[in-house]
């Protein structure tokens, strides 16, 4: 049996908190006059959007809409994934028409998850613009998608595993990388 590679902590609780505060400031600075909506991608992106929403609202001094999308049925690999996807609810309890929507996710990898989220959002209307905020950008894009707001750029190899843990789901805030942990995981 091969020994497993140790995980490297790239963001702990304090550094994650600072990264999210910086992202919140960037969102407001780049869209000062827009009606904003934060839309998180299930599951961890939705949690991060819920954390960012009060920060962005306080910094901007205006209302910031909050929603979340499930992209399970919008994935381009739906037929090749084998097991049936676990489908969560999508909550967009506001009109996206004319708003600046900031899609929030934990890790940006190939860009396919973000593309699916954009497709899901367009089923609800046509936003003024869509921006992307991610906690971690690990590179290796397969689609021409780039983040507008990044908490931490993490250089990785395609076979590395980036693991985001959040207090709400895992009891701790941390981002770790396990080098060469097998095949690349689509994010």
Features:
187 residues, alpha/beta
Briefly, what is this?
It is built from four helices and eight strands. It is of the alpha/beta class and 187 residues long. The strands form two sheets. It has a five-stranded parallel sheet.
What is the global morphology? globular
What does the largest sheet look like?
5 strands, parallel
For the largest sheet, list the strands in their spatial order.
3-2-4-5-6
- What is the residue-averaged pLDDT? 90
- Give the number of DSSP strands: 8
Helix content: 25-40%
How far apart lie the N and C ends? 28 Å
Total count of helical runs of at least 4 residues? 4
Q: Which structural category fits the helices and strands?
A: alpha/beta
Radius of gyration: 16 Å
The SSE order reads EHEHEEHEEEHE
Strand and helix layout:
Elements: E1 7-11, H1 13-30, E2 36-41, H2 44-60, E3 65-69, E4 100-108, H3 112-122, E5 129-137, E6 149-153, E7 161-165, H4 167-170, E8 174-178
Parallel strand pairs: 2-3, 2-4, 4-5, 5-6
Antiparallel strand pairs: 1-8, 7-8
Helix pairs in contact: 1-2
Describe this structure in words.
The protein is of the alpha/beta class. The protein has helices at about 15-30, 45-60, 110-120, 165-170, and strands at about 5-10, 35-40, 65-70, 100-110, 130-135, 150-155, 160-165, 175-180. Strand 4, helix 3 and strand 5 form a beta-alpha-beta unit. The longest helix is centred in the N-terminal third of the chain and has 18 residues, at about 15-30. The model has no long low-confidence stretch (mean pLDDT about 90).
